[in-house]
Amino acid sequence: MPVDPKQIRAKDKVVVDGIELTSEWNRMFDQRPVFDYGIDVLEKIAEIPGAESIAWCYQCAQCVPVCPVNEVGDYGPRKIYRRLQFGIDLLTDDELWKCTTCMNCLRVCPKDVNMINIMPAVREEAVMEGHVPAELQEVFENTFEYGNPLGESPRKRADWAKDAGVPVPIMKEKKEADILWFVECYPSYHPRGKETSVALAKVLNALNVDFGILGTEEKCSCDSQRLAGERGLFEEFAEENIKTFSKYKFNKILVTDPHALNAFKKEYPKLGGEYDVVHYTTFLAPLMDKLEFKNTLNYKVTFHDPCYLGRHNGEYDAPRQIINSLPGVELVEMWRCRQNSFCCGGGGGGMWLDGFMADHVKERLSENRVKEAVETGADVLVVCCPYEISRFEDAVKSTGNEGKLIVKDIIELVVEAMGV
Amino acid sequence: MPSQDILVIGGGPAGLEAARSIGDLGFKAILVEKRDRLGGTPDEAQYAALTPDLRSAEEAMNEMIQAVENNPNVDIRLSSTVVAAEGSVGDFKVTVKNGKGEEVLNVGAVIVATGFQHFDPGRETQKYGYYEYEDVITLVDCEKMLKAHRFVRPSDGKKPERVCFIQCVGSRDRRIGNEYCSKVCCGIASKEAIEIRQMVPDCKVFIFYIDMRMYSYWEPQLYWKAQEEHKVNYVKGIATEIVKKGDKLLVKGEDTTLRRPFEIPMDIVILSVGMEPSKGTREIAKIFGLKQNKYQFIEAVGAPMDTVSTSVPGVFAAGACTGPADLEDSISAAGLAAMRAIKTVRENGAKKAS
Rounded to two decimals, what is the model's pTM? Predict the structure, then answer.
């Protein structure tokens, strides 16, 4: 008989003489001894294709100090392995949904325990069994129904372009372009995302880039939904996007979203879609000297490396090159940067699990990160992933740092320097 | 009278390798073995498969034995023990006794290869109830069952559902006096765990450990293989007590990484017993006046740069008589001891000629 999960979890709240005890102490109110190991469960999970390496952990624990969720709670691959060894079924355990697939554990793991494969594989199984946090399920349904996780109308996907003030050609009319710009959902619908899309459109126009967007034909790349367990949805949408791409002639796909970059680079080829794909920072970095800057910005900025641009796809320099080319901008690094960048909490489905996570962590990852940014003394936290702008702006407010730090997409800084 | 013959004491892996090497290089080796057959501990304790390659111990040892038996330069004396020695480098007079009587051998150099014995887990403390519970066994007892292809619960012959190893029994222990790590037990436990999983696939196997010490290639060959391919469960924290509960053994300890006590029922508990100097090693050390370390192993006085010279010139030691050693250590040291012994007797021959 496997151990009862409650047995190794602290009670939610223990109050003695009016004082609420911390989890260290309230554990004493639980039964402590372990009466059995339920290793059948470990074997069951390790049999799921993709999840094999969970059974390889030898408890060196290097993953724990670099796990962002452990920074704000109690987590890490080593601990997941231990819970499995104790017979706690990951398929029904809340632990399954805490990982943001940020990949910092894999960076340091000597045994190749690969959460980037394990998490989507086990979550897919859980999704099939119907064990999904409600808020995430809603996002899956929105994506399925509307083609985007925000539940916005697919017909309004390119509405932002109407107000851009510069031409944003649609491939349906243009048919052929050097660059196919895959805008993705948050930059199409989210108020702050739309502003960055307009900014990027201005820069592309200033550089005379021959580009086009898919407009209402574009569908979510679904990479985060895939990592959150909806492989079926991902594949369905991928097939539709691949079909749409096949209608047009283009040389390169430009993406705003590092998650889309990841999908096109690593997952679409498996489904027959091979493209030359580039993140907008990588695309723009070598073109910066072609832009004319009218304004000196006088900002001290710090830069947040997105997990899916940096660790997952190896791009650390392009955003920094862009920042350093802007007049009057001084870049100060946070100590967790580049390969060791701290996750904003949005990846792997985390974008849609803030309510769920609130029960498991003392603060959001984005809040933890914003505090670090404030510590550097920077005025601006520069980002280049569409998840981050809203997450960090919320976190600036919730940590009481309004007025101390503003959050800007890197492209907004470029446009500001250009004065267009 | 000075001699160019070399005496090898002990017919286990180190002694066999030393004798073969001496013979191969054209010198005469006299191999003395107290048992009535060669093969040493792997044969006497009926090892099933060797660590780390899981090759049949019987097959591997027979190969070594044949190499010695077919070597015209090796004179094998079975059922013989060394009872006295005098003389010095180049000219030792060693008294060997067998059923027929005593004989004095004149040799120029000696290689001691008298090996180790397994720690007796009932001797010092009764912590694990080795003599109390039939289903508490040692690595050695487990080898015998594996060799017989019948891995069952000793008390009732039933197929075990759960088995655990407890590491470091009789090693790394100041109270017992064996402060050293016995070096091979982590590997052997992992090897036996693999064999158990192969023989009884439904049986869950646990290894409770303090540190897994899988040096060099043993890491992927044994530890990773056991965990990744054979689903052996490693838990950090060795059990302290074993209590009989019905027909099971309740193993009590702390799961240190979870900081929780555990009380897990097991069918068989295997104690990973370490190495101690054998009775033969201790006796031979006394007979030749060899310096022993605080654990009574023969001291390799030039270690680490010279792993085979003892405190007595002309007497060399190889294998587990100098301390915990695996087969690779023993075989390597035996070759080196043979080389050093030959160098010694050749110098002696040169002196004799002048």
Answer: 0.88
Asked whether the predicted pLDDT for residue A95 surpasses 90, the reply is yes
Q: What does the DSSP 8-state code read for residue B6?
A: E
Report the complex ipTM: 0.82
Query: Which residues have C-beta within 8 Å of that of residue B116, sequence separation ≥ 6?
Result: B41, B275, B276, B277, B278, B281, B320, B321, B324, B325
CATH architecture of A287-418: 3-Layer(aba) Sandwich (3.40)
Q: Where in chain B is the domain with CATH 3.50.50.60?
A: 6-115+278-353, 120-274
DSSP 8-state class, residue B105? E
Hey, what CATH topology would domain A134-285 get?
Rossmann fold (3.40.50)
Give all strands of the β-sheet with A179-182 in edge-to-edge order. A211-213, A179-182, A252-255, A277-279
Name the class of domain B6-115+278-353: alpha beta
B228 → closest Cβ in A42, A55, A78? A55
In chain A, where the domains are located: 37-128, 134-285, 287-418
CB proximity B240 to A under 8 Å:
no
pLDDT (tens digit, 9 = 90+) per residue, A29-58?
556 778 888 889 999 999 999 999 999 999
E strands, chain B, are 6-9, 29-32, 74-77, 81-88, 91-98, 101-107, 109-112, 116-118, 136-138, 162-169, 204-209, 233-236, 241-245, 248-255, 260-266, 268-273, 275-277, 315-317
What percent helix, strand, coil does chain A show, rounded to 5? 50, 10, 40
pLDDT score of B354: 44
Q: How far apart are CA B262 and CA B274, in angstroms?
A: 25
- For A39, which of B233, B255, B261 is closest by C-beta distance? B233
Same fold, A134-285 and A287-418: yes
Q: Which among A170, A285, A289, A283 is positioned nearest to A218, based on CA atoms?
A: A170
Q: Are B227 and B243 in contact (CB under 8 A)?
A: no
B250 touches chain A (CB under 8 A): no
Residue B94's beta-bridge partner residues? B85, B105
Report the mean per-residue pLDDT for chain A: 94
Edge-to-edge strand ranges of the sheet holding A406-409: A329-331, A299-303, A380-383, A406-409
Which residues of A fall within a CB distance of 8 Å from B212?
58
Chain B: give the shortest CA distance to residue A330, in Å: 45
Contact check, Cβ <8 Å, B231/A36: no
Nearest CB among A34, A36, A59 relative to B236 is that of A59
Assigned fold of B120-274: FAD/NAD(P)-binding domain (3.50.50)
CA distance A359 to chain B (A): 22
Q: What is the pLDDT of residues A342-396, one digit of tens each?
A: 999 999 999 999 999 999 999 999 999 999 999 999 999 999 999 999 999 999 9
